[in-house]
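User: My collaborator sent over this chain with a note saying "see what the structure looks like." That's all I know about it. Can you take a look?
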Amino acid sequence: MERPKLTAIVTGAISLVLGILYLIVVQILDSREMIPAPVGMALLNTLNQIL
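Assistant: Without extra context I'll predict from the sequence alone. Here is the result:
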């Protein structure tokens, strides 16, 4: 097999593996429970003054 063809096959395989791993990581992160970010007291006081 010619070297350029082998290089193309190997880099294509690596690309596929990285793409599949990326999709797996995104699925794992997406399936986690959504926990709202903590809000600081200063922001709460500001919101209470506005409302």
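A starting point for your reply to your collaborator: The two ends are 73 Å apart (CA to CA).
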